[in-house]
Amino acid sequence: MASAPTRSPGAASDGRRRPLAAPTLLTGTEYIADATRHIHAAKRRVLLTTLTIADDHRTDALIDALIWAARRGVKVSVAADVFTYADAAGTFLPTGYRGARWRAGNRLAGKLSREGVAFSWLGREKGLIWRGRTHTKFCVTDDVAYAFGGVNLDHRGIENADFMLRIQDERVADDLEDVYGRIQRMNLHERGHRSLELRYGRDRVLVDGGIPGDSIIYRRALKHAQRADRVLLMSQYCPTGELGRTIAEREHELWFNPPRNAGPANRVLIASSMAWTGYRTQYRSARYLHAKAIVFFRGGAPRAAITGSHNFVNGGVRLGTREIALETRDQQTIAQILRFHETEVRGR
Q1: Measured between alpha carbons, how far is 61 from 89 in angstroms, rounded to an integer?
Q2: Phi and psi for 200 in degrees, rounded to 5?
Q3: Residue 148: beta bridge partners?
Q4: HSE of 54 in the Cβ direction (CA atoms, 13 Å)?
């Protein structure tokens, strides 16, 4: 996999030495409520990108907030992947697919567009549904950023065991606007861009740009795992590839969905991955686990963590999935991730 350059858009180099503002971990329902409040208060910009979006009882207040923000002159842009309706079609999406979820998704897109929201679909409407996906999830409202988790904007996504981090930091908000623009440009030309690494003190935002085989998130997770004595992983799926093998060689806890928790396509994916790797999950709840984070422990050294949209499977790397994650050594942030694991994953 190609090495990734370090970029510093939106801020002077001296600003890169300052650590991030303290993140706050929010569950799915907390994220939607908090983002809705900030969108209502926004004065300059609202940017939102997600894998899936729907207008239902869990999201209607947020969608109304987007509309009201656009009506009062705020720049509001929303991008969602065609996976919003593609995942109902099975493994392959035929050209011209027009199911019920396609119709619902395009009604929502039309509703937002008529009210002045710049709405765009990401990805292609045909072929293998897992190829070329934009799995990146974040929301920016003025200088507040919600990112580095996995929450999708529909009732299933919000009700999953999942979280987002809220960070009030102008640098992060500006950089995510830059990432949003890159996604739009690359999608227009059906291309990816090289991975990005954005630094804030010792923390890094890692961006996979959608080039098959080039994942800075997977590379950084592998590097940390190789140095770790113990690894705790939460993910939708069991880890695969070199990262999975490296984790298995160390003391570890693997928390991912058992096949019974998943729909047909994901059930096959999880079961086959478990059969191939021999890994077993410690997760026992029937609630779907969608959080994606790894915490690395190394003797007396400070803990490190990677949290975001990446599921830590090699298949997504090969297919060129766009992702975003935070690599952090901030012990308060890591403590929040471990507390989420204790209460929402282990404790259920």
Answers
A1: 28
A2: -140, 95
A3: none
A4: 19
The answer to whether 290 touches 150, Cβ cutoff 8 Å, is yes
Contact criterion met (CB below 8 Å) for 13 and 6: no
Helix/strand/coil for 238: coil
CA–CA separation, 76 vs 70, rounded Å? 6
What's the rounded Cα separation, in Å, for the pair 315 and 244?
12
Predicted local confidence at residue 187, as pLDDT: 84
Using the Cα atoms of residue 315, residue 318, residue 324 and residue 327 in order, give the sign of their dihedral. Answer: positive
| The pLDDT value given to residue 55 | 86
174-183 pLDDT, tens digit per residue, is: 999 999 999 9
Q: Which position has the token pair 């996999």?
A: 1
Edge-first strand listing for the sheet containing 196-200: 196-200, 203-208, 323-328, 301-308, 293-298, 230-234, 251-255
Q: Spell 252-281 as b/e; 16+ CB within 10 A means b.
A: bbbbbbbeebbeeebeebbeebbeebebeb
pLDDT bin (cut points 50, 70, 90) of residue 13 is: low
Amino acid identity, position 79: A
Alpha-carbon distance values, 308 to 108, 233, 263, 324 (Å): 26, 12, 22, 6
pLDDT digits (tens, 9 = 90+) for 181-230: 999 998 887 788 899 999 999 999 999 999 999 999 999 999 999 999 99
Statement: residue 46 has pLDDT above 90: yes
Q: Residue 199's beta-bridge partner residues?
A: 204
Query: DSSP labels for 124-189?
Result: -SSEETTTT-B---EEEETTEEEESS---BSHHHHHSB-EEEEEE-HHHHHHHHHHHHHHHHHHHT
Asked if 343 and 311 touch (Cβ cutoff 8 Å), the reply is no
